[in-house]
Amino acid sequence: MARFELRLPKMGESVAEATITNWLKNVGDTIDMDEPVLEIATDKVDSEVPSEVSGTLVEQLFSVDDVVEVGAVLAVIETDQASAADQDPATQQTPQSQANPAPEVSPEVLEAVSQPLAQSSEANESKVSSSEGRFYSPLVRNIAQQEGISQQELDELSGSGKDGRVTKSDILAYVAQRSSGAIAPTVSALPTTASASNTAPQATPVQGRISAWVPSKQHETTVKPQALPLQQGDEIIEMTRMGKLIAHHMTASVSTSAHVQSFVECDVTKIWQWRERVKKSYEAREGEKLTFTPIFLEAVARALKDFPMMNISVDGDKIIKHRSINLGMAAALDDGNLIVPVIKNADQLNLVGMSKAVNDLAQRARANKLKPDEIAGGTYTVTNVGNFGSIMGTPIINQPQVGILALGAIRKVPAVIETSEGDFIGIRYKMYLSHSYDHRVVNGALGGMFAKRVADYLEAWDTQREA
Predict the structure, then answer these.
(1) Which residue from 46, 233, 365, 377 has the highest number of Cβ atoms inside 10 Å of its Cβ?
(2) What is the pTM assigned to this prediction?
(3) Please, where are the H alpha helices in 162-226?
(4) Burial 364-376 (b: 16+ CB within 10 A, else e)
(5) C-alpha to C-alpha distance for 46 and 40, rounded to whole angstroms
(6) What's the pLDDT tens digit per position in 294-341?
(7) DSSP H/E element including 368
(8) CB of 405 closer than 8 Å to CB of 382
(9) Pairing status of strand 318-321 against strand 327-329
(10) 3-state DSSP assignment of residue 10
(11) Number of neighbouring beta carbons within 10 Å of residue 315
(12) Residue 415 pLDDT > 80, yes or no?
C-alpha cells in the first residue's frame, strides 16, 4: 500500500493561502481520481480540491475554518498501488548511500541550528496570537489590519470556529456591522503609525465578486440601522459568507465612487438577423453556440481602445491607465449570486476567440471551477441584465474600476425608419445600454460618448461578415 499526500494546489500568483470550508470526504471514505475531497475559499473565489489518485482517505490534517498555505499537506490517501520500496526492498538503501553514510552531528551544532529555528517559531506564533494567547490566522490578522480593528476589538470578538477561533466569516460580518454603523469602532482602532495617518483613500486593485478591496475609514457611514420588528410567521435567513462579502463590496463601492448613469438606445436589428443566419453553421463548425454576449464584448473592447480613459482604475489620489483591456463579464450562479470572470486582452481576440472565452468562463463559473487569477485583473466590466428580462439597469461599479455597462433585453418595437424616400414605421430589434461610471474621474461627456460609441459599433454591424 502507498500513501499519497494531497496538497493545497497553487491557485494563482496572488493567492498564498486558503480557508477550508467543508470536507466532502471523511476518514475511511473511498475516493476516485479527480473526485473532490474538500472545499476551500480564498479572498477571490471558492473552489474544490480534487484527488489526484484513487484510494481511501486515512487522515485529515486540518479542520474546517483552518487557514492553510499553498503547498501544505491537507490529507493522506492510501492507494492500492505498492510503493517503490515495497516492490524492491533493495532500493531502500542505494550503494551510494551505503558508501557515504550520513555524518554525525555534534550536540553543539544541533543546538546552534535549533536555537534560531525555535526563535523563529516563537516570532511567528506571536504574530498570529494575542497577548492572552488567543490564536488568529494570518488571514484574519490581515483583514483586521486593513480595517483598522484594534487588538482589543479582536480579542472581544466571539468566534464560530473550533475552540472559539475567529474565522474569516466572523471578522467580515463584524466589518460589515461596523461599516453600517451597527457597531462603533473603538478609539484604539484608529491608525497610529505615521504611514496610516495619510487620509487619502487607499485601494488595492482586485476584481470579482469576492475581493480584498476595502474603503478608507472616511467613507464609512455612521447611520445606525434600527432593529426590525418580527411578526408571527417571519423567517430569519442567515446570510451566506458569499452574500456578506458581496454586500460589503457593493456598499463600499457606492460610498466610494460618485455613481452617474448614461443611457443609450441601440438598434441591433442587423446583429439579430446576422446571428439568425450564421448561428447553425457556427455551432456545426466550432462545436458551441454563438450568443450575443461575445458580439457585445467585442464592441466594448473596440470602444475602450477609442476612449482609453475609461480603461482606468483609481488608487487613492492616483489614476492608473491600463494598457491591457481585460473585460470582466458578470455571470449568474445557481444560488443567485454573481461572479465576474475576466477575459484578458479582450481587444486582441476575434469573434471566434471571444465566443470560446465567454462560453468557457461561463460554464466553469457555474460549475465553481474558476481559478482565482481568472476573476482578477479586470479593467472594465459588462453585465447582462437583459437575461432576467430587465430593459435597463443601474449597475454598481466593480472597484477599483471606473465604469460598468449593463446590457438590457432585446425587444421588438415599432420605430421610425429614415429612408431617402421619407420616414416609415417598422419593426426593429432594440435594446438599452446603461453605463454607470465614476464621476470623480469620468465626466458626463466621456461617459456618454463611450456608451454611444458602443452603440455605433453594434448598429454598424457588417451583415456580410463571416462568423
Answers:
(1) 365
(2) 0.62
(3) 168-180
(4) ebeeeebbbbbbb
(5) 6
(6) 999 999 999 999 999 999 999 989 999 999 999 999 988 877 778 899
(7) none
(8) yes
(9) unpaired
(10) coil
(11) 15
(12) yes
3-state DSSP call for residue 410?
coil
**Cα-Cα-Cα-Cα dihedral sign, residues 54, 56, 62, 63:** positive
Burial class (CB in 10 A: 0-12, 13-18, 19+), 71: exposed
- 157 three-state secondary structure: coil
Question: What amino acid occupies position 133?
Answer: G
With vertex at residue 231, the alpha carbon angle to CA 225 and CA 232, rounded to the nearest 5 degrees, is 150
Q: What is the three-state SS of 40-68?
A: EECCCCEEEEECCCCEEEEEECCCCCCEE
Instruction: Measure the CA–CA gap between 147 and 139, rounded to whole angstroms.
Output: 12
Q: Which residue has the cell 494531497?
A: 6
pLDDT at 145: 76
Contact predicate 378/311, CB 8 Å: no
Active site residues: 439
Confidence of residue 105 (pLDDT cuts 50, 70, 90): very low
The residue with greater pLDDT, 191 or 338, is: 338
CA angle 173, 130, 19 (to 5 degrees): 45
| Helix, strand, or coil (residue 429) | strand
* C-alpha grid cell, residue 412: 421588438
Dump the DSSP string for 287-339. SS---SHHHHHHHHHHHHHH-GGGSEEEETTEEEE-SS--EEE-EE-TTS-EE
Alpha carbons 309 and 325: distance in angstroms, whole number: 12
Q: Do the bridges between strand 55-60 and strand 380-384 make them parallel or antiparallel, or are there none, so unpaired?
A: unpaired
What residues contact residue 37 under an 8 Å CB cut-off, 6+ apart?
Answer: 6, 23, 24, 25, 31, 48, 49, 50, 51, 57, 74, 75
Q: What angle do CA 445, 449, 451 make, to 5 degrees?
A: 125
Angle at 409 between CA 408 and CA 412, to 5 degrees: 130
Q: Which amino acid is at 190?
A: L
Handedness of CA 12, 333, 310, 458 (dihedral sign): positive
